[in-house]
Design goal:
Length: about 160
């Protein structure tokens, strides 16, 4: 594999083909690896979403797995080779992000020992409340966890992005 080979793992998958306001990252990642080289693996617990993704993205470089993302990540033997982890699995409730934020922290803690130098981790669906500036969203607990370690994001808006 050359330097232009990229392994991408996404939690949560394409749910509504063509809806560019929701869940099209797998399509974009596949376009990227078609321009370079590599693979995109997506995992989602919803069988219908997995079926839609399989029908919409038929390229051999794309695989979708129907499973709980934390369990699936734990079962993977090649996480050391992943260049980008895109964490976007559990729908967030903005005023009560606890379940989603905790789930994404569990995903991160599974992949954390496997993060190679240069690896990127991006977590989707994050905001700050305009009145209090309090963070909420899927990446809130990951951001708190990494901040305690002195690791700050390279980008911190609707997506929180870290490079290791």
């Amino acid at each position: 594999r050359g330097s232009d080979w990229y392994n991408i793992v996404e939690t949560g998958t394409l749910r509504n083909p063509g809806n560019w306001k929701d869940g099209q990252s797998a399509r974009l990642f596949l376009e990227f690896v078609n321009l370079t080289s590599g693979t995109v693996r997506s995992v989602d617990i919803d069988p219908e979403a997995c079926d839609r993704a399989r029908r919409a993205l038929t390229d051999e470089r794309f695989q979708v797995h129907c499973a709980d993302s934390v369990s699936w990540l734990e079962s993977q033997q090649d996480l050391d080779d992943v260049d980008l982890f895109y964490l976007d699995s559990w729908d967030v409730k903005w005023h009560d992000d606890h379940d989603s934020a905790e789930h994404h922290l569990r995903e991160f803690q599974v992949i954390e020992p496997h993060l190679k130098p240069g690896c990127v981790v991006a977590i989707d669906d994050n905001i700050r409340f305009s009145d209090s500036h309090r963070r909420t969203g899927k990446g809130r607990r990951v951001a708190e966890y990494l901040e305690q370690q002195g690791h700050l994001p390279i980008y911190d808006e609707y997506q929180i992005i870290y490079q290791f």
